[in-house]
Structures are given as structure tokens and as C-alpha cells.
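This follows on from our talk about sequence and fold. I would like you to pick a protein and set down its sequence and fold. Go ahead and set the record down below:
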Amino acid sequence: METELRLIGDQSQENAGTSDDHVTSIMEADRQWLKSVEKKTKLLPKLLNNSAGKSSCCIFRVPHSLVEINKKAYHPHIVSIGPYHHGKVHLKMIEEHKWRFLGGVLARTQQHGIGINDFFKAIAPIEEKIRDCYSETIECSRQEFLEMMVLDGCFIIELFCIVGGIVQGDIDDPIFKMTRMIFFIMRDLLKLENQIPFFVLETLFETSILSSRKQNVSSLTVLALKFFDHAVQRPPEVLRSNGVLEIPLLTVDDFTTSVILNCVAFEQCYAHCSNHITSYVTFMGCLINAPSDAGFLCEYKIVENYFGADEEIASFFNNVGKDVTFDIQRSYLSKVFEDVNEHYSNNWHVRWAEFKHAYFDTPWSFISALAAFVLLVLTMIQAFFAFYGYFRPPKQ
């Protein structure tokens, strides 16, 4: 390498007629440049760190290509959880209430000798494990990171306990009193970038006073499911599409669409899970190519539309699959895709389905079809007797 540098210097001297001192300065500059290049090769990635492909890493930044399609679907609107959106100005209101919730937790636990220091002691040994759950390198001090985990974790646990009836909340608490406030918080808690690891919540839950009454308290998992159950409308039964496919009722609103988008983003980022949500929305996107398709599914109670017009339903399912990698062989619906395509390739089935939809879909269309059929039969009978009378005239 030094020989190469000398050649560069000699060539520069020959071409430009420079002095030996100038050659030496060029060589030194090249050495510094080469050192800086070598130094860069040893830097660890920060925006997508080396542990991002491990099963332990499960909290990701949503790919920019997906954010561009649905810009408001992935970022929190009212509360930040974890480091990715920590400190943003528009989330400051609930940030202040987190401290109030933590105070409520401490007011109970301190009666049993558990103080704030005990929560930090519980989280400190697993700090590195927590950091490894994030696909980005978290650039904050140890104290700031532990404070964030304890504050956000206790806030979530307190929400679960109040909604689950484990803790008596203030009846005038604005978090629960103001219209739709808790709904917005629920929606933000299910966004991919707005997370802390569940084992952090379990650690804090076990540390709190609730762990001393475990026989009378539901598990954290049950409390979490009860909490989000308030925002999800469950179908009462499985409903049918023309007797061919059985599809559960899907309620489409701001909450469900946000959850679907973030679940799809998670499946795109995390290689150690199924692709069930991506499979489902891809299948629905194949069924809904136009607003009329959305209207058809709404009419048959397969889709319950609280989202807007049929155009918005069609637009959502058409966009959710954009820039998404989908392997049909890994899909739990692969056989359904195969059977539907095979059924559709049979022209007789398609024509019969179109005929039924056109003439037997509603009572009025059936009556019209029946009237037309009767008229056709009468016309044929009239034509038959007319021809019969012509070729076989009655005997005189």
C-alpha cells in the first residue's frame, strides 16, 4: 500500500512539478483517508442492528415503503410507549399522566414495603435483554432507559388493572371519563413501533403488590386480553358468501384497520412468526377489487362497515397489500386460494353464480325473473299453436 501511495505521489510530482514536501503531504493525507475507511468497516449498524434478525428482536421500525402508503397508521397519536417516539411534543399530555399512574401504583405497593427502587432493581438485570428486543440501537443512558421502562410499564399495568376491575380507579379520571380517550390509548398500544417487551410488564407485575395476592388476581395475559376486548367487536356467528365460502364477520373501523396494518407490518419484519394476518388481508383484497365488491360483502354481512363508503373499504384492502411480500405456500389459506381459482376456472360455475346473483338475489329480482319466465313460456305456447294451426289446419 505504501508503494502505491508513493507511486501516486511520484506521479503527482512528475505531472505537476511539485516538491518532495508536497509528495509527503499527499502520502500522509492518503494514509489518513485509508485509516478512516478501515475504521468505518468496524462500525456497528445502528438503524438496523446486528441482532435484528434474531427471534429475541421483535420491536421494529415500520419500513418506510409501508409508512408512505399509510402515513398515519403506524405512529402513536396520543401516547408514546418505549423509545422510538419518546419525548415527542404532541404526546406530552399523556406523558404527564403516566407519572400520576405511577404514583397510584406506589401508593399501594409502599404499604407492603415495595418502593420505586424495587422496580428499578427488578428491571436493571435485564436491561441488555430489553435493548436487544429493538431493531435500532437505543441511544440513551442507563438511568433514562430504566426510567422509561418502569414508567411506561407501570402505566400499562395500571390501565389493565383499572379496566379489569382489579384496582378501583377515580370515577372522574379524564383518561376514562373523556369520550374515546381510552379507545385512542388502546389503539396506540397496538402499534408496532410503540412497544415495550411483554416480559418487562410481567417483571413489573410480579414486583408489584398484586403478586402477593396471586390467588385472587387474574394473570397479566388475561388482564391484557380483557383490556383490548373492549375495543374489538366479535362476530356472533360464522356467516356465509353464496354458500361457497364461510367467512367470519369482519367489523371495519379505525381500530381494526390500525391493528391489521400493524400486524401485517410485524409479519413483514419478524421472520419467526406465521403470516396469518397477511394471508387474510391478501385473500380479502382478492375478493374486493372494486367498491361494488365491498358493497356485496356488506350486503351479505361478511363486512360490517363503520369505516365509510364502499370506496374506502375497497381502497383499504387494495392498499394494505401494496409493497408486501406474500408467500402463498406458507399461507394457512393456500388451499382456499387453490380451490377458489379452480372453481373460477370452471366457466359453468361462474355463469351459474352470475345468473343466481342477477335473478335470485332479492325478492323483486326473483319475481321479475319468474314473470319473464312465465311470459316466455306463454309466448312459446302461443307460437306453437300458431305454427300448428298453419301446418295442420282444422278439417272443415
